[in-house]
Amino acid sequence: MEHHDLIVIGSGPAGRRAAVQAAKLDRKVLVVEGRRRVGGVSVHTGTIPSKTLRETALNLSGWRERGFYGSSYRVKKEICGEDLGMRLGKTLEHEVDVLEHQFQRNNVRTVAGVARFTGPHTLKVCDIDNAETEFSADKILIAVGTVPFHPEGIPFDGKHVLDSDAIIEVPRVPRSLVVIGAGVIGIEYATIFSALDVPVTLIEPRQTFLDFIDREIINDFVHILRDRGMTMRLGCSVEKIEIGADGWPVTWLTDGRRIRSDMVLYAAGRKGATAALDLEQCGLAVDHRGRLGVDPATFQTAVPHIYAAGDVIGFPSLASTSMEQGRIAACHAFGLPIPPAPKYFPYGIYAVPEISTVGMNEEEARERKIGYEVGIARFRETSRGHIMGLNSGMMKLIFSLKTRRLLGVHIIGEGATELIHIGQAVLNLKGTLDYFIEATFNYPTLAEAYKVAALDAWNRMPAMEAKRA
Ligand SMILES: Cc1cc2nc3c(=O)[nH]c(=O)nc-3n(C[C@H](O)[C@H](O)[C@H](O)COP(=O)(O)OP(=O)(O)OC[C@H]3O[C@@H](n4cnc5c(N)ncnc54)[C@H](O)[C@@H]3O)c2cc1C
Question: Nearest C-alpha to atom 1 of ligand 1 is from which residue?
């Protein structure tokens, strides 16, 4: 039986980063991947495809230029599935090539097949021809990610009723779209298709959504979406979906409404992809959503030589955090000291418009009884915003009244997911309001909004408090 120092199950961001880290420590590493090609959900159906779709939609629709040339401005009048698929194919091919090369360069062996445990240190891998090969390892990392959650009664058909994996497989522009679930994935697709002029109805059983984001930002977001004609049915549950005689689904809501649409995207949750792993063979069990519990510092499971990282361990379920978790797991497994991770990581929501956030929001500051002041900058107040024709977008900074330290950054609008990193650095380095006031920013930039927002907060900070700090 072939033996390895580390076997990684899954080649998404967590598995890939762990494998490369262990290889750099001169360990013999094997990555097992159930798909034909490496990359995981992140490359094949999640992060990269949805962001490529977004970029294509914004470019072809002329979205970014509409502030200047008017809301009827279009770069391409008829946008079809082929337009979306072309860029998608090229980007994915490139991403996979880069990953395959990275594994090769680092001497990481990859095998294609579905892995299952046969013991705490052994795995069988079943390949596409149903041939099984057994491998053993000192350490094992489970980085199998998630699959879409399919509740009973939703008639998924791969054409009109889709989950978030299927919608990207053969992309098309529907005549109308119902999105069920206002989580990050649902919100991203709803707003991308709405930017392509598709009439979109978003259904969410709760009255609120994206509750980890600052409420003022969400209120702004909801206003922007309603203003451009998106229908939002918050506090409404789906009773059933029926397929009409013409093949179009009809979504029945519990409040009696029925919505006929060309396409329904069911985006209300994902579950850990642990079903095939035979975890009882190695002494592990999962929760009701197929997820594994780990030590949050080392990513060890209840069986100490077996680690788990990425979406299979739950929140925050981001490619960015999954990579770091994989790297830390590999460092711990092979005795490399792990410096404490920076306290704050950013959250990016690639909706149209983008939202990004790091640190505390106003609600948290209030709950924790921290005295704070808020500074706001609207992108249209910056010269760069004028040049770009932006008529929406805002940055909100939260500062401690007592220490003047930056507590949180919340951005909605163009470039939010890039701009956030300035705030993240200041936050993790324990910077204060004074940094933004004293620093020189490139001009004209959207980043200047940091200065504008800091000055806005400074104007309201009590003078005595400011001096004391
Ligand atoms: C639509 C969508 C958009 C997203 N957008 C973003 C974003 O903008 N930014 C961001 O940071 N994150 C985003 N995410 C989340 C991101 O994709 C995930 O956090 C990330 O992919 C998780 O990485 P992972 O390493 O846990 O595994 P995954 O990427 O989920 O990969 C796991 C791999 O394991 C394989 N596998 C499973 N079981 C087995 C088995 N038994 N044997 C062998 N192989 C197996 C699977 O085939 C899969 O390839 C998005 C997700 C979705 C669905």
Answer: 46
**Could you read off the pLDDT of 8-46 as tens digits, one per residue?**
999 999 999 999 999 999 999 999 999 999 999 999 999
**Per-residue pLDDT tens digits for 259-293:** 999 999 999 989 999 999 999 999 999 999 999 99
User: Would you state the pLDDT for residue 74?
Assistant: 84
Mean pLDDT estimate for the chain: 94
Site of tokens 């199998």: 144
49 Cα: distance to centroid of ligand 1 (angstroms): 12
C-alpha–C-alpha distance, residues 382 and 184, integer Å: 29
> Which residues does ligand 1 sit against, CB inside 6 Å?
9-15, 32-35, 40-42, 46-47, 50-51, 114-115, 143-146, 164, 185, 273, 276-277, 310-312, 317-320, 322, 348, 350
Q: DSSP string spanning 79-131?
A: --HHHHHHHHHHHHHHHHHHHHHHHHHTT-EEEESEEEEEETTEEEEE-TTS-
**Side chain identity at residue 206, one-letter code:** R
